[in-house]
Amino acid sequence: MAKFLFFGRFSDLSGDLSLDLPDTVQSSDDLIPWLDAHVAGVVEMLARPGSRVAINKELIVDNSPISNSDEIAFMSALSGG
Amino acid sequence: MYCQTDITRDPIDPAALQTKFQHHSGEAGAIATFTGIVRGEGDITSLTLSHYQGFTESEVEKIARQATMRWPLTACQIVHRVGLMHPGDVIVFVAAASKHRRAAFEAVDFVMDYLKSDAPFWKQEMRSGKTKWIEPRLDDLEDKTRWQA
Hints:
The complex is a heterodimer. Chain A is 20% helix and 25% strand. In chain A, a hairpin with a 2-residue loop joins strand 3 and strand 4. The longest helix of chain A is centred in the middle third of the chain and has 11 residues, at 28-38. The radius of gyration of chain A is 12 Å and the shape is globular. By secondary structure, chain A is α+β, with helices and mostly antiparallel strands. Chain A is built from 2 helices and 5 strands. Chain B is α+β, with helices and mostly antiparallel strands. Chain B is 35% helix and 38% strand. Chain B has helices at residues 14-23, 55-70, 101-118, 138-145, and strands spanning 2-8, 30-37, 44-51, 73-81, 83-85, 90-98, 121-127, 130-134. Chain B has a 4-stranded mixed sheet with strand order 1-4-6-2, sandwiched between helices. Chain B has a 4-stranded antiparallel sheet with strand order 5-3-7-8, with no helix packed on it. Classes of the chains: A alpha+beta, B alpha+beta. At the A-B interface, loops of A face helix 3 and strand 7 of B.
């Protein structure tokens, strides 16, 4: 099962989840609309400035392959200091 | 070279950290430090910082390493608090040591600009019983561009 983590504003949408990815989800571009059906608001939140996604603790910038054992983190704009 | 980064839920004591840091500063002729404090603006009662365990630590380490590659530092330290804090609490301590002052000043400034908008922390303030997410201000994002020339 893939593990989904939600940080910042994304944590208002959902707590952490473990979900089996269907065969139709092979990449991050496949994943987002599929996940939005489970966690409403993900697509809208990703459009906000500063939102980012990490797969296995590596930020992704382009479409990236996804497997059913991955840890996928959704993060709203970062704010430390 | 001494390069220490910590993410902690415990209170931060800047004076104690600076004393310890100086012992690790080698031949430094200058130590610059920055202490960030939770502001008690208006009716803020608390600030909660969350982080992504494992990822936040490695990203903060990257920021410290970038500073040590960019300036001739003899030591560098970042301590960042997470969890529940109140106005007056220390949220971050940054220190840089170098032979001369300019490198130490600039390294601390650089680290803070990157912590503000590039480190995986999320701030939620509590005002009058209501929570609100705090995101980087435009100034914070522009500050970082100073180092990208």
